[in-house]
Fold this sequence. Notes:
The protein is α/β, with parallel strands linked by helices.
Amino acid sequence: MTQTSKKLRVEDVMSTDLLVCSxxxxxxxxxxxxxxxxxSSIFVKQDGRIIGVWTEGDCTKVDFSDPDVFLQSVEQYxxxxxxxxxxxxxxxxxxxxxxxSGFRHLLVTKGGDEEPVGVISLSDVVRSQGxxxxxxxxxxxxxxxAEVPITQGDISVARIxxxxxxxxxxxxxxxxAEIGQTGIITERDLLTILSRKQVDxxxxxxxxxxxxxxxxxTSLFKAYQILKLKQIRHLIVEGDNGEILGVLALRNILxxxxxAYMQELETVLYQxxxxxxxxxxxxxxxxxxxxxxxxGIMITDSRNTILQVNPAFTQLTGFGxxxxxxxxxxMLSSGRHDxxxxxxxxxxxxxxxxxxxxIYNRKRNGExxxxxxxxxxxxxxxxxxxxxxxxxxxxxxxxxxxxxxxxLAYFDELTHLPNRRLFNDRLEMALATAHRDNSKIAVMFLxxxxxxxxxxxxxxxxxxxxxxxVAKRLQNCMHEGDTLARLGGxxxxxxxxxxxxxxxxxxxxxxxxxxxxxPIQIGNTEIVITTSIGGAIxxxxxxxxxxxxxxxxxxxxRSKEIGRNSFQLxxxxxxxxxxxxxxxxNKLKQALKKNxxxxxxxxxxxxFTHQIVGAEALLRWHDSELGFISPANFIPLAEELGLIVxxxxxxxxxxxxxxxLWHKKGIFDKRISANVSALHFTQGNLAQTVKNALxxxxxxxxxxxxxxxxxxxxxxxxxAKKVLKALKKLGVSLSLxxxxxxxxxxxxxxxxxxxxxxxxxxxxxxxxxxYGNSQIVKAIVAMAHSLELNLVAEGxxxxxxxxxxxxxxxxxxxxxxxxxPLSAEQFELFCExxxxxxxxxxxxxxxx
Length: 848
């Protein structure tokens, strides 16, 4: 293949718009998105990596007889792994790959395991070349598929899909004897059925009819034009007597020309180079070169008059052949180059016989584009008049991508702030300047408080939008010379130069905290986000970039420890705290294996009889070296480290084991509640965990209560409802913990199978003295009564609090007024002291 032909690569014709979904998305959701975007494929992405692709062709794998077909995940039917190709690959190699692999969609990457940059299909390759002229010379007779399945219209769509799958056909003909018509159902129709969530009618209901037909002697070019005009993919091929011979699909036409394209184009391009090098003015060969070249070609005479252009010229510039013949090339001038530029270009051309370079030109619609232009002087002899062949390709998008790649190297793609590399460069420069001028600079480390909860409850798209808005607010606090950067996730760094006084650093931190004070609107949700900030000063807290960033990070963690939403300047003593936190992290990872966790039990007491009506299991951790560690310290850490689901499973099993033991001893026959993390709803299988525990310990579900918080179902109410209903089927009771402190909404209570509301201790602590809190408690109690929900008031420590709750008819209380959390042995003694009568315990499980 010639040098000019080799220039055309995957990056020149690929599509950069990837339609992407998660593995959990349903077939119906994916089909709707594909139909909306009018694409034939959707890529499945997990943990930042493309793991599969689902296409129209995969619809035939679907079992349409399954009533839950629309809810099945795309992961079950995707093709994996996805075939990839480098963006620098020549199109000739792509065509061979399509031939050999049987794939019709290739994922495009920049290199190695890097993030995909686009997708290329066989249609992209063929259509980008203007190859329709090949189709004039072939008839439908050589390309249609004769073995097409045909069936009756009263069969089901599920049967149609099965036929396509078994026969490896992309369509089925449907015969309707009642009306004497034949219709067709294609892979795209199956996709449409999935998108509409309707599959209850016979196949004929979904068929397209009457059929669009062509005679078998029709040229492929005419058939191609019909398909494009009608925006369809299949034509019925008829014989001389009107009988159906088969089906011609768009893919048949594309397959027909793809191999011929490579052979003929390489031959033509080779002839073009040979003709240009030897200066042979062969009109036939020149015409072949012009018509077949994917690059725009314009031939002018020595007087600079346009003699000929090729179809690619029209495609690239928008000017038709008749509009430019006889005109001057200056009609394309963009106005961006001065006379000196053109004088230099022509001087080089006359001297060397060839000129190459980048030049801006203007399209017919006024759009300016950048092209790579080669001008060759063609002259058989000194006596002959010279001709000039200008060969060009549009490199605007390539240059734009190069600029974008350069930008990505130094700027964060999401927030457009400097990234870690650029921040480090600027920090090194600032350190050199500060050292030379004997001045101070400051480095600040910012981390958003509870950002992971936003991602886990509202989704990563909401988290990304939150990060963008946070970045804008923080940027508004910057002064000239300062650098705000995003290192990744929810971590930001700030470089302050020319620091005169330490109080200026505190003032800057205060403005950053204040900038995030107002709620941020994400869709229909208002999010209040705060930040913990740490700072370090050069030269006091470090002499180099690594040390300053490390100390600023340590100071930031100190801000989190003292309550978040604050700023701390580094102090040497913080190093010890940082090491302590690391020690806790390391020990927490081994705590389960070492059996260092235990459960304490706090009784739930009847407000009026003062009898025990239940208990709450509370997790405790005792390390041999660090002693008892507060759940407030290790539970958030367990969530960060991804250990919380395993801990939840341990707690649920430990509770069930204790219930079994106390039943055998005849000590306690009331319900025991176990708290579970909101992350268990998204990262684990909570219902299966509980079912397994009930089976293992042979416990009836009515003796177990699961306590959840509102953050468990904020992200997806429907998904949460499924989990809670599954738990209810096991006989388990459900309690909503900390009600009123989170995202409380009455609609949740009406739609979810909640049995009990727990009034948060922060409200109970201020009753009845504080009017606002008292009114909130009254409202919660009244609402629970109206919804026939049980009530438990937490944190009751004073007699007047108990009296207030008794007046409201709050059934149960929990708190130090009666008992602190007790070990299993202490709880047994407590039960003995409060035993009303001999227990009658039913040990047989009902649902497990």
